[in-house]
UniProtKB/TrEMBL annotation:
This is Succinate dehydrogenase cytochrome b558 subunit. The lineage of its organism: Bacteria, Bacillati, Bacillota, Bacilli, Bacillales. Keywords: Heme, Iron, Membrane, Metal-binding, Transmembrane, Transmembrane helix. The chain crosses the membrane at residues 12-32, 52-77, 98-116, 136-158, 179-202. The keyword Metal-binding applies. Signal peptide: none annotated. Its main location: membrane.
Length: 203
């Protein structure tokens, strides 16, 4: 297999992992967090279910952490080797290309910190519950950090769906790609609103 062929397949795998399982997990995770808008008890119940799934450690390693590491590290490589041309061609799609790279780096940093603040603390004897999150976002810095991180992560996912559809040959015509752009914007607005509302439920 040539380097060009291997690069093609790696990019397809990178794109796929961004949607399945990471995109699916992102939506599920934000929906669990959104239960905090109902009540403290509702969030603790939902978080408890997720934290007590059978083989939860193995599920997290193989469905979340390993895919995130591959997608994130290869994505950062793409971000720092990509040739951004927004200064020369200021079209909408070129700006989305640049923002996809920036949001990917922000999302990777946010997820790393988020995992430390929550999942790593579980290994140190803490419990993921309403009080844990409430204490974190009580700090204005972490509140802003979480909001920016969630919005950047959701943007990266939603805009990445547009690229995914092209990479996998689903949207080939200009018309279908334009329609997918509108769908991606709608997905971003809906999911980011859910994510930000969930954060403010802990404030």
């Amino acid at each position: 297999m040539s380097n060009q062929d291997s690069g093609f397949y790696i990019r397809r795998l990178h794109s796929l992992l961004g949607v399945i399982p990471l995109g699916v997990f992102l939506i599920q995770h934000l929906l669990v967090n959104f239960t905090a808008t109902y009540s403290e008890e509702a969030f603790n119940f939902a978080a408890g279910i997720m934290g007590n799934l059978p083989f939860v450690i193995l599920l997290e390693i193989f469905i979340i952490y390993l895919p995130i590491l591959f997608h994130g590290i290869y994505g950062i490589y793409i971000a720092f080797t990509a040739k951004n041309n927004v200064g020369r061609y200021g079209t909408y799609r070129n700006w989305m290309f640049l923002l996809q790279r920036i949001s990917g780096v922000v999302a990777f940093i946010f997820i790393a910190v988020h995992v430390y603040q929550t999942r790593i603390q579980v290994f140190l004897g803490e419990e993921v519950n309403f009080q844990m999150v409430e204490q974190i976002v009580a700090n204005p810095f972490w509140l802003v950090f979480w909001i920016v991180g969630v919005v950047a992560t959701v943007f990266h996912f939603a805009n990445g769906l547009w690229t995914f559809m092209i990479t996998w040959g689903i949207t080939q015509s200009d018309k279908s790609q334009q329609v997918m752009s509108y769908i991606a914007i709608l997905i971003f607005l809906i999911i980011s609103t859910i994510g930000v509302m969930a954060i403010f439920a802990f404030v």
